[in-house]
Amino acid sequence: MDPPNNPIELEKQSCHDKKVLLVCKTLQNPPTKMTPKEFMFHFVSSENSKIAYLRRCWSTETGVEGAMDLVRALRDEINETPLGRSLWKDLIQEEVRSLCCCL
């Protein structure tokens, strides 16, 4: 869905919403179009040193809470559907098993 073009609707958008919409629009530019999910996955998994530098605080005392907020937001989004809830449950059970094996 495209963002509204109505100037009044655009004024109601927060600065964060405007920035997110701009980034998503940029992701759709050729030559390499990316979905927001593809972008986020690449951002958190890339071994590129410049990208790794941008996420350097994610697991530190100052950044881990924000990273956990992101995980919780993803959980909430995924759990919107029965399939999502089932797959989330499977993931959590898998994580519990891996933790139990390490103790």
Q: Brief overview, please?
A:
This protein is mainly alpha-helical and 103 residues long.
* Secondary-structure element series: HHHHHH
Distance, first to last CA: 47 Å
Q: Report on the biggest sheet.
A: none
* Count of strand segments: 0
**Spans of 5+ residues with little confidence (pLDDT < 50)?**
none
Instruction: Give the overall shape, derived from the CA principal axes.
Output: extended
How many helices does DSSP assign?
A: 6
Helix percentage: 55-70%
Question: Which tags fit this structure?
Answer:
extended; 103 residues; mainly alpha; 6 helices
Describe the structure.
- The chain is mainly alpha-helical.
- The protein has one domain.
- Helix content is 69%, strand content 0%.
- The chain contains six helices and no strands.
- The longest helix has 21 residues.
- The chain is extended and about 55 Å long.
- The relative contact order is 0.04.
- The mean pLDDT is 91.
Topology:
Elements: H1 7-12, H2 15-27, H3 36-45, H4 49-54, H5 64-78, H6 82-102
